[in-house]
Structures are given as C-alpha cells and as structure tokens.
Amino acid sequence: MKYKRILLKLSGEALMGSQNYGIDSERLSMYSNEISKVVNKGIQVAVVIGGGNIFRGMQAEKTGIDRVQGDYMGMLATVINGMALQGSLEAHGIYTRLMSGIKMDQICEPFIRRRAVRHLEKNRVVIFGAGTGNPYFTTDSAASLRAIEIEADVVLKGTRVDGVYNADPEKNPDATRFSSISYEEVYQKDLKVMDMTAFTLCKENDLPIIVFDMNTPGNLQRIVMGEEIGTLISM
Question: How far apart are CA 171 and CA 105, in angstroms?
Fold first, then answer.
C-alpha cells in the first residue's frame, strides 16, 4: 500500500446527495462503506467534513449576521456532519473518535494532537469537527492544518469530479484533466483546488494533495493502494 495515514477531506455539499439540503442517508452510508474498506486494510484515516449542506459562514452576511458569528455557525454545522458520519461508521463496525476545535465535551473530545495520533495508531477513524476553531478559516484550511499536525502522508480531497481540470468540466466539455501537476503550476494557472491558505500550508510542508471523485465506489481504496486516480499535486 502506498499511504499509511491519510486525511480525507469531504465537502458538506457531498453529503446532500440528490437533495437540496441536509444529509442523504444513502450517500452517508456509501461514504462510510468506502472508508471502512480502507480502515480494514490497516490504513489510518482522519476525516474533515465541510458544513455547506447545513450552513455556510460566508452566506451569513446576506442575512445581517456578522462574519465571525456566521463562521462559528458554520463550524457547528461541521460538527453535526461529523456526528452523522461517526454514527454511520460505527454502524459499519468501525471505531471512531470525533474531535472538535471548539470545546463541547458532551458530544466530542477537544482536539489534542497527541491524543489524535494515538487514536489513529489504534485504528480508530478520527473525525475533526469545527474547522480550526477560528473564524476566517475554511474547512480546507482545517484539513491542511490537521493533516500536517498528525503527519499524514497525503490529503485526499474527495469531490464530485475526477480531478483538477484547466476549466470547469461541468461547464466546459473540452476541459482537460491533469493527471499530476506541481504546486507552482496550480498558482500560475490560477486553478481552484483549495483556498489559498490551505493550499499554501500544503506546499510549504511538502504535503501532497490528490483530488479525486469520491462518488465512484472503490476509488478511495485504489488510491491508498497506489493506483493513479484523480490528480496528484506535489512538488
């Protein structure tokens, strides 16, 4: 196997499935099944999920809520998604721990780096909720930061497209996909992989990113075993 410890980044929108809002039970179960197959192979898995299926902090300003308050609301949405994934994974027989960047002792552990690493070593899936615990940072930034802190081998960004393209493939049928690309090329071509803070964190710490289609069954397993799926971004 190519990767021993991974951080999987999922968007909140991905959990909606075909719905317009909330969590689709079939999509949640599918993701849990994919993760469980990888865990059962002995891969250490950490997960960061966005909250856009419930609430986006940046949308809050339109309703008169200030940005900081909105971002905290978005963080709480990620904890809801984390709890849903935790419940689903445990229904698949996988041990988990939900850790939060904001203290909420009744439902999850506070994020402590050494404790998170120990959970991973015991083959528990660690779900990181509440982003970094700070406003103005996206869950992409949280994923990059947590991946660096736990010394993950790679960030796997699961999306609904099968990699990074030179244009939006959902709008431009002639868009071409990169099988691999350097951090510098992503900057130069202004490709939207992650927000700039998250992307720079990965670049400065030489942490590779793979963007892939999470909705194709088996993709996650094939990546950790070394198959070239999606787009690899590295030095």
Answer: 44
Q: Write out the two tokens for 50.
A: 């966005």
Q: In whole angstroms, give the CA distance from residue 19 to residue 229.
A: 27
Cα 94 to chain centroid, rounded? 18
**Rounded to whole angstroms, how far apart are CA atoms 33 and 14?**
15
Per-residue buried b or exposed e for 10-44, using 16+ beta carbons within 10 Å of the residue's own CB: bbbebbbbeeeeebbeebbebbbebbbbbbeeebb
Domains in the chain (CATH in brackets) are 5-234 (3.40.1160.10)
Are 177 and 163 a contacting pair, CB within 8 Å? Answer: yes
| Tens digit of pLDDT at every position of the chain (235 positions) | 789 999 999 999 899 988 888 999 999 999 999 999 999 999 999 999 999 999 876 666 677 888 899 999 999 999 999 999 999 999 999 999 999 999 999 999 999 999 999 999 999 999 999 999 999 999 999 999 999 999 999 999 998 889 999 888 888 888 899 999 999 999 898 888 888 999 999 999 999 999 999 999 999 999 999 999 999 999 8
Q: Which residue reads 């192979």 in tokens?
A: 41
Cβ contact 232:223 at 8 Å: no
| CA nearest neighbour of 107 among 140, 78, 144, 79 | 79
